[in-house]
Design brief:
This protein is an alpha+beta fold. The chain contains five helices and six strands, in the order E-H-H-E-E-E-E-H-H-E-H. Helix 1 crosses helix 2. The protein is globular.
């Protein structure tokens, strides 16, 4: 289902060549399948910003150092959650309990912004990887182009801290 997007009077027209496939919005609502919390190749890691680590440390009533030592590893110079198996790669998220996120309120930015990540927001990846994998695609609310773009833009350079 798509939604016709009203054009605001003073909005800047989008060039035809740069019109993204999600110009009319995308329908998505998390179905709680937990599928995005399991390792699957390149999408297996849950990276953490400093803000994420601080939020999660507070959730567990730990200091930032304690939380980082206990729950974090590093990949390509970025902090990430250690996986359940205790090694980097291979395992599911350690906070996935019976297909549910056990730290939902404190979950990292990466989890909050799925599936509107810049690297999956192209027609091919969306249809071949996201829509065929995630049961939330095509369900619930239609997110507008502006909403999706704002999420994707917020992730540009998000791991800098
Ligand atoms: S923190 Fe929660 S939402 Fe994120 S991958 Fe782990 S279980 Fe899933």
């Amino acid at each position: 289902m798509t939604q016709k997007k009203p054009q605001a009077k003073n909005s800047v027209p989008i060039k035809k060549s740069s019109i993204p496939f999600y110009k009319d919005g995308l329908q998505f609502e998390c179905q709680g399948s937990g599928k995005c919390c399991t390792s699957r190749g390149g999408y297996g890691y849950v990276y953490l910003t400093l803000k994420d680590r601080k939020r999660m440390a507070a959730h567990f009533e730990l200091t930032l150092t304690e939380f980082t030592k206990q729950y974090c590893g590093k990949h390509n110079g970025h902090f990430m959650l250690k996986e359940r198996s205790g090694h980097e790669g291979g395992g599911d998220c350690r906070f996935l309990k019976e297909k549910r996120c056990s730290v939902y309120e404190a979950r990292p930015e990466q989890c909050r912004t799925w599936p509107f990540w810049p690297e999956v927001l192209n027609a091919k990846t969306w249809s071949q990887e996201v829509a065929s994998f995630c049961p939330g695609v095509g369900k619930g609310k239609v997110h507008s182009y502006e909403e999706i773009k704002a999420v994707a833009d917020s992730l540009k350079g998000w791991l800098k801290d």
